């Protein structure tokens, strides 16, 4: 946990970083923070109006001009990820980082009642889509001198919890994918791969999962950004295959 990390103002200068789910919640805050530290950010998500709002906020703050890449992990195919890699290659020539942040909660419900279509939808958005997107983008990451892949986990991706169903299983799969890829990259390429658990954070997803909770007791997306910046930038060089937390455990 690097919640007290003080990033240099130019931490991500000249870096090209992709953020998924960049239109809302933690992804939006991370995209703004990456841009304000110098990165050219590719904003990926499924709701174009929300991506445009993030885009406008980056422009208004005087950050490097971002790019918008509309994509819905639910419907996207293997071919779409290949096309995406081609487009990004033409436009940027390389990629210095991916924050895999987009995520779907599904339903908090006893496993016995879990709807199979919803289960597959959650696995598609949280695991399969990001996996094939990562495969397609590896050639671009290999063009970078120092690339960071951040996969978003959760407390329930490290210890299963009753009623969390596909979401919990998808985050365990995310941890597993991270370990496989990190082990393959180790010492072969300057690409580090780690998971980051944001911890309880004041967003729409958290509100849906804990409707009775006092949101004011939670950290905001802005509060947890130091760890997001540390892990994306050069100060985390050498950190590979780790399961990290963005905030200390709540007492
Ligand atoms: P939000 O629900 O606020 O944001 C999720 C983002 O993912 C949105 O931008 C959403 O787009 C995007 N998204 C969802 N489905 C798709 C899809 N099919 N294709 C493309 N984009 C999609 O959630 P948070 O900001 O809270 O969560 C961010 C990450 O952090 C997630 O991976 C979540 O699992 C994880 N996390 C969050 C915690 C918390 O307390 N908030 C705790 C632990 C983990 P749109 O807005 O257009 O729907």
How is this fold's topology laid out?
Elements: E1 16-20, H1 25-36, E2 40-45, H2 48-60, E3 67-70, H3 78-92, E4 97-100, H4 116-141, E5 147-152, H5 165-185, E6 191-197, H6 204-209, H7 225-232, E7 243-245
Parallel strand pairs: 1-2, 1-4, 2-3, 4-5, 5-6, 6-7
Helix pairs in contact: 1-2, 1-7, 3-4, 4-5
The structure holds NADPH dihydro-nicotinamide-adenine-dinucleotide phosphate (NDP).
NADPH dihydro-nicotinamide-adenine-dinucleotide phosphate binds at residues 21, 23-27, 45-47, 50, 72-74, 101-104, 125, 152, 154, 197-198, 200-201, 203-206.
Strand content: 5-15%
CATH architecture: 3-Layer(aba) Sandwich
Bound compounds, please?
A: NADPH dihydro-nicotinamide-adenine-dinucleotide phosphate
- Fourth-level CATH superfamily: NAD(P)-binding Rossmann-like Domain
Pfam families: adh_short
GO molecular function: oxidoreductase activity
Domain Ketoreductase: 15-180
Protein name: NAD(P)-dependent dehydrogenase, short-chain alcohol dehydrogenase family
């Amino acid at each position: 946990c690097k919640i007290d990390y003080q990033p240099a103002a130019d931490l991500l200068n000249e870096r090209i970083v992709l953020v998924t789910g960049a239109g809302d919640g933690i992804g939006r805050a991370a995209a703004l923070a990456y841009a304000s530290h110098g990165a050219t950010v590719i904003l990926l998500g499924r709701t174009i109006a929300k991506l445009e709002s993030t885009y406008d906020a980056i422009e208004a703050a005087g950050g490097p001009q971002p790019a918008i890449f509309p994509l819905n992990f639910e419907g996207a195919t293997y071919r779409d990820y290949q096309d995406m890699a081609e487009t990004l290659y033409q436009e940027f020539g390389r990629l210095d980082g991916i924050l895999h942040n987009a995520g779907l909660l599904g339903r908090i419900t006893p496993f016995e009642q879990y709807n199979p279509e919803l289960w597959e939808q959650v696995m598609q958005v949280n695991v399969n889509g990001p996996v094939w997107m990562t495969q397609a983008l590896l050639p671009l990451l290999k063009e970078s001198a120092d690339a960071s892949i951040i996969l978003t986990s959760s407390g329930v991706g490290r210890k299963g919890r009753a009623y969390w169903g596909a979401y919990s299983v998808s985050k365990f799969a995310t941890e597993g994918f991270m370990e496989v890829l990190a082990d393959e990259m180790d010492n072969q390429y300057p690409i580090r791969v780690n998971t980051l658990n944001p911890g309880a954070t004041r967003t729409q997803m958290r509100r849906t999962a804990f409707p009775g909770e006092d949101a004011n007791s939670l950290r905001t997306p802005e509060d947890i950004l130091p760890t997001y910046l540390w892990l994306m930038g050069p100060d985390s060089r050498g950190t590979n295959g780790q399961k990290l937390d963005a905030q200390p455990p709540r007492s």
